[in-house]
Structures are given as C-alpha cells and as structure tokens.
Amino acid sequence: MKTILKLEGVSLSYHTKDGEIPALKNISFEVKSGEFVSVIGPSGCGKTSVLSLIAGLIKPDEGKIIFNGKEVKKPDKAIGYMLQRDELFPWRTIEQNVFLPLEINKNKDEKRKKEALDLLDKYGLKDFKKSYPNQLSGGMRQRAALIRTLSTSPDLLLLDEPFSALDYQTRLAVCDDVYSIIKNENKTAILVTHDVSEAIATSDKIIALTKRPSTILGVHVTETNKSLSPLKRREEQIFGKTFELIWRELNDEN
Ligand SMILES: Nc1ncnc2c1ncn2[C@@H]1O[C@H](COP(=O)(O)OP(=O)(O)O)[C@@H](O)[C@H]1O
Ligand SMILES: [Mg+2]
Predict the structure, then answer these.
(1) Residue 246 belongs to what domain range?
(2) What is the pLDDT along the chain (254 residues), one digit of tens a residue?
(3) Which ligand is nearest to the CA of 40?
(4) Which segments of 30-126 does DSSP mark as H helices, in order?
(5) 219-247 pLDDT tens trace
(6) Could you tell me if residue 65 is inside a domain?
(7) DSSP letters along 202-246, please?
(8) Model pTM score
(9) Domains held by the chain: number
(10) DSSP letter at 82?
C-alpha cells in the first residue's frame, strides 16, 4: 500500500498573550492508503491540533507534513475534515447541508450535486433530503454530517471525536455505521478519540500521544479481525489484550 500521509518531526506551539504553549513535540507517523488510523491521548494533549495541521489550517513550527507526495501548505480539497462539533445547520435541509462544502468550494455543479444526493440515497437518507436536522435521530444526523464531508470526494477523512456527543448505546451503533460507510467508499481515515475501546474496535493502527507537550507514546498495529464490524471486534479475545496493553501504557505515563 502506498503512503498517503507522512508527518516528519512535527512540533507546534501556540503563541498566546501569556506566553508560549508547547503543544506537540517531534511527532512523526505515516498513514497508508486505505488505512484506518486512530490518534488517542488525554484531553488537551494536542489531538485536534494534529488534525488541524494535517488539514493545513495551522502551520507547524518545525517539521513537515507530506500528503500525496506534496508538503501541506494550505487546505486541500482531497482532505475532508469533520470537526469535533460539526453540527448541521438547523436552518438548512439535509440536502442543503450536504451541498454546503460544494458551495464553499464553488464547485456545486450538477454532477457533484448528483453524487452527493446519491450518497444520501445509498446510506438511507433518501426520504430525509428535504427534512431539517432536528427531524432526524442523532445517529442519522451523524451520518448526514459524514456524507457532507464526503460530498467533495476527499481521499483522506479526518474525524475529530465524531461520536463524543452521543450516548453509549447510540455511539456503538453509529460508530459501526460510519465505519462501514468509510470502508465502502474506500477512504483513508484518521480518527481522533479519547476512547481506547473505540480506537481498538475501528483501527488498523493506533497512535498514542503523551500529555502535553505531546510526543508519541506508542504506535500499535492491531491484530483484530478486520472482516468483522467494530462492534463484533469488541468480542474478540485480542481486543481485551490490546486494551490492557494500551491502557497500561497511557496510565504509566500519566
Ligand atoms: N488556538 C489556540 N490558542 C492557544 N492554545 C491552544 C489553541 N488551541 C489549542 N490550544 C492548547 O493546545 C493544547 C492542545 O489542544 P488540542 O489540540 O485541542 O487538544 P485535544 O484535542 O487533545 O484535547 C491545549 O492545551 C490547548 O489549550
Ligand atoms: Mg480535541
């Protein structure tokens, strides 16, 4: 598999009026095409910052981010970013929400509109295109938000704690749902989460960060059965073993 993304010695500080806040220190990792990678770590360690750097929204102080062979200098349409509180606009219908990135990128042509509408049909939102977000369940809203991110056909998806607002039961189901759409559409994904179980259930590879200033604590290639859904993987014996290993690693450090 080809490498789609590479971080090389990335460091980042925030410059505030009270001084400098070092957030990330010497972060390096690779993501291969088609991989599902999670970034985990304690709250405030810099997970969102990692995604913002990859998305080209902020620049590192040191190091490089290479996407599809080129250094990331500004936002790239081939990278789709689903923000932590990425809510649908309540005053727009589902289809108007899904068209939003096309409007922002000024490429809302008939072909792209049709592709976006096809995704809504394909993933069970056919009858909700003219509905408003508050008429949908939390899980369906999440699916619509994902389809909105997919409407510009990105190669790489960045997901920042996409399930954190959902209750536990819904969260498990929505996670399966979102995962299967990402796989079905052959996308590469980076999921940020503070939930170790969620990372193990979904990912090929897990990057654990230390507390701030964050460095890489460990990289784990999971041995779960990838033909199973994330929910089913939780029942595997290897799931518990991996959980204990990573949990201990995070706790020894913090
Ligand atoms: N725009 C900003 N200005 C100043 N400090 C920031 C800014 N964004 C994030 N930080 C700080 O950087 C650290 C990492 O933030 P973040 O990447 O959001 O962490 P996480 O997503 O892991 O919770 C935190 O201590 C946070 O307060
Ligand atoms: Mg965050």
Answers:
(1) 1-78+156-162+186-254
(2) 899 999 999 999 999 999 999 999 999 999 999 999 999 999 999 999 999 999 999 999 999 999 999 999 999 989 999 987 778 999 999 999 999 999 988 888 999 999 999 999 999 999 999 999 999 998 899 899 999 999 989 999 999 999 888 888 888 998 999 999 999 999 999 999 989 999 999 999 999 999 999 999 999 999 999 999 999 999 999 999 999 999 999 998 76
(3) 1
(4) 47-54, 94-104, 110-122
(5) 999 999 999 999 999 999 999 999 999 99
(6) yes
(7) H-SEEEEE-SSSB-EEEEEE--S-TTS-HHHHTTSHHHHHHHHHH
(8) 0.94
(9) 1
(10) E
Query: Does 151 map to a domain?
Result: no
Q: Report DSSP state, residue 92.
A: S
Residue 122 lies inside a defined structural domain of this protein? no
The pick from 10, 12, 38, 45 for probing ligand 1's pocket by mutation, whose C-beta has the most ligand atoms within 8 angstroms, reads: 45
Q: How far is the CA of 111 from the centre of ligand 1 (A)?
A: 39
**177 occurs within a structural domain:** no
Q: Which of 75, 227, 220, 70 is nearest to 158 (CA)?
A: 75
139 in Cβ contact with 173 (< 8 Å):
yes
Tokens of residue 75, six digits = 């936002």
d(CA 22, CA 95): 41
| Residue range 57-78, pLDDT digits in tens | 999 999 999 999 999 999 998 9
Give residue 124's identity as a one-letter amino acid code: G
Nearest residue (CA) to ligand 1, atom 5 = 14
Distances (CA, A) of 74 to 48, 60, 83, 106: 17, 12, 17, 17
**Chain Cα centroid distance, residue 116:** 20
CATH number for position 238: 3.40.50.300
